[in-house]
Amino acid sequence: MTTTIVAWGFTGPALLTIGRAADELDREHDIRLIRVPLDEDLPPEADVVWVQGAMNPMLGERILAAVGGRPLFSSPPVAQSLQIATAHGTGMGRPPRNPSPEARIALALRLVTPGRLVHAGRLSALVAGHTDVDPGPMPDDIPRGIFDTGRGPEHPVGTCGIIGTGLNVAAGDADYLRTIARVLNSLDVATCTWLGSPEDMPGDMKNRVDVWLNLTGFTACGNHGAPATDKGTALAEETDAQLLTPVPLQRGTLSDWRADPGPVGLWPAAVSMNIAVPELEGATVPWVFMGRDADTNHLTPDDTAVARLAERVRRTIDLRRARPADRKVSVTIFGYDGDGTVGTAAQLDVFASLHALLRRLKEEGYTVEVPDTVEELTDILVGDGAGGARSQASELARWRATDYARVLGEHAARIDGPWGRLPGTVDTDGRDLIIRGARFGNVIVGVQPQFGDVSDPAELLMANDSTPSHSFAAYYLWLEHVFGHDVMLHFGTHGALEFMPGRQTGLAAADWPVLLTGSVPHHYLYVMANPGEGTIAKRRSAASLITYLTPPLADAGLYGALDELAELLDAHLSSGRGAGPVPREIIDAALRADFTVEQAQDPAELRRELERVRRSPIALGLHTVGRPMEQRQTARSLELAATYLADTGEAERTAILADLEEKLQSNTELDALVRALAGGYTPPVVGGDPARRPDALPTGRNLHAIDPVSVPSASAIARGRNTAEQLIAAHVDAHGSFPESVAIVLWGIDNIKTGGEGIAQAFALLGVEPVAGPRGRVDTFRILSPEDLGRPRVDVVCTLSGVCRDVLPQPVRLLDEAVRAVAALDEPDELNPLAAHTRAHAEEMDTTAVEAATRIFSAAAGSYGTGVNKLVQAGDWDGGEDLAEMYLTRMGHAWGTGADGADAGAVLRKVLGTVDATFQNVDSAETSIAGIDHYFEFLGGVTGAITQLRGDAPASFVSQSWAADINVGTLRDAMQLESRTRLLNPKWVEGQLAHGYAGVAQVRTRLENTFGMQATTGTVDGWVFDRAAENLLLDEDVRGRMQRANPAAVNSMTNRLLEAADRGLWDADPDTLDRLEDIADQLDGVLEGIEEV
């Protein structure tokens, strides 16, 4: 009797295997094996059903209904498949020592090869009752070990270890291995191709490997169900060989990818499997290099990608073989907007760190000329411009525009559209393009050009075909084609290269980051506390990241009027007169310290606020690469770390803190840079702040994110629930009612560091609980009943950064599914405002409930940022309506299940018009809310947009979540604390001024961001600007020291305060404005070379 087996949903090597096994089954065993795609109906003649493919609950129900009572076998590692098969009564766990037929079929489907499928077919016939003959032991026909790819080069320059999978070879799909080996051989690179886990490779063979090329699409060791990242890391460390893991397309064909890949790039499952998990073992270069042929289904390499990949391997080997004296190194620092910010990076003294690196390279034998001092290096790199001191980046070289155009080729026309015909208008004299930086022997320190001319950022950011400027493209192409660098290093967090337009992940040849960097080995010095944006740099610019330490923390302390007030309060309260009337001297002192009249009459409130200021942790100064903390500088970080260890035993807590203290006082960052520049391997490390993630130390390792399918974690869910309840309580306290709708800002950086606390907060506000499966994959959720929730649900509008959108696609989709599930509930309007708003908006907009339920928004695919910060920094706005329009236009794209950046501007405007409050986490004491422009760009941007849509400002809250004890307060309160502890605090200012040019730039940046928050939200009190003018600019000693170090930054600060007054953002004293005008005039003369510094 013929047995009909339907293989439902098989793809890839399994599909090829089915074709090879079907003939033998039909010919020798009277078994008919047919393949049916999952989107087609199950044929009625099926006796047995095999299922392979990713599933969701809806599809699982459809499969179970179609299969009925017939035997069903489902292939892991898909969690839903396991649930379906278990529900149907088939065993899907690890097979027993003497497996039953059902377990053997399951194992055969898990490791699909022709021999195993024939075995599974015969077992299936036995299960269906069409035979009583047990086929016996299952054959093991998966090839392992050395795979012969043909004869290599006669005189190889080095060896590439290629890691392949025996499943493809068993399926008759191994030509791609031979093709890639042949391309490498043509570059005189010997290859050693190994099928299976390379840890089993003989030692003499393993030790010859210079570069590992992992072509499995997963980790180097282990398998899709059980990645062995620790073994992959050990392998790369043992051989000190970089691990390159390009991406094979698992879905769709190579021709489809070439023709219309879309701006999103890889789908979420591929991001997790092919990129995020391999990064845990230090993998890099996630370029798409092959896919399946549309006709044959065989894996087919992309010739361009393989050539670039092979060149990367060859250049890495050349780097390892070259003498240090012969290596040519490019180091890129960042220019930003030019207002005294050349060479700035997050929490890093760039010039002191550069000087330390140049000195170390000299010691290592590099041909490098090292300036005597940091100040001399700064003067060389930040030139005199029009004659004034340190007014702009120095000129390194000029490149004839016609020569540049020949190198760029057909892509020059792409730039001509947005920027005007070659050579454009940025950094050019009309004939040549100017390359900025300086040469120090075989080391060039170049200054990355601005993204473009920010005089009209709106036009640039709105353009669908935006590109880098000609000067930006010329800089990178000059490094490659004129200077001829052997290795590239980006220095500090962060530049603009990785945010250039193109696919989000799985970049191809025409995407700008790939086009500009080519095949040169690339490393990126990155702050340990920013795994979100670091991951974008790693994936989009094919960089290996090298972490650097954050600055030491200290208590902010008290100063000036705050200190005077504290002394008076202590005397008053210790005198026993605390219950009586508040003395006039305390009220006057409180007012001098810029407290309100109401606060001044409440000594207990004043005491609490002063203590909060005094104990707030602040970063002291900037980090210098290679310099560890002194023991006295570790105390505040250790104290903060201890707050996260309250639930651990004393012995364990003591051991963790002792280990943290030791790591803070040691530093191997320069060793790591030297090893990377010589072509060595940089082991992986999780990102985070020292106090919260001690395992992020030591620095000098390859920063990575987390597997997105594990987000949010159990601890994040608990903390997220706590924060959500605090937020609701804060709104009730301030406004007397529950918030119906909250706009929450979600970033990649904090969600990666915290395991998804922000995402968990959104779930909690909705009244939904994420649920993790047995392997830790968070792939479903539970909707809490109104009774269990104990309060109304909150309509949550999620506004995502581009990093969050790109790095955490699975939790974003799950959150979208939760939103839509809650929107569809039949609950009273007062308990479910999301459902109520969805129905009302659908009717008002004459659209579907599906569209009206959209609540997850971000920029378009391949675009990053709201553009609000660019407008503010350029001064190119007339009022809040301009900033709001920029925000709404940029962020009006829907994300989630199936959305992928669809235009949803109308829905965004509608839902924001009903928002009661805005909210964001502040997760870092080192950075804080005015430390970077992204807080006013995102939180300020959405708050300002809502203000314009509603006609009045929403409530705005932030969570100070950098400590174990979460505290939710108003944005205004946060800005007061921020200003008192940092911008206006002599302790913080002096810590910055100790770093000269770079430190003054940081002071300028914090004032700029304070201005930005006022421009977007109006939550900065006037006294903040009063004291900033008084303490920083009108104080001649402080201004003089800043002016000598960085006159352009001081000029920018002065003009920004004048702009604040001119726009009505600051009600300034006329005398103060007159004095600021005089300072601005004098600084203009300095920068023009007319006056002395």
From TrEMBL:
Keyword Transmembrane helix: no
Keywords linked to the UniProt accession: Ligase
Keyword Ligase annotated: yes
Domain CobN/magnesium chelatase: 652-1072
Pfam families (alphabetical): CobN-Mg_chel
InterPro entries: CobN/Mg_chltase
EC main group: ligase
E.C. number: 6.6.1.2
Molecular functions per Gene Ontology: cobaltochelatase activity
Protein name: Cobaltochelatase subunit CobN
Naturally occurring in which organism (per UniProt): Corynebacterium antarcticum
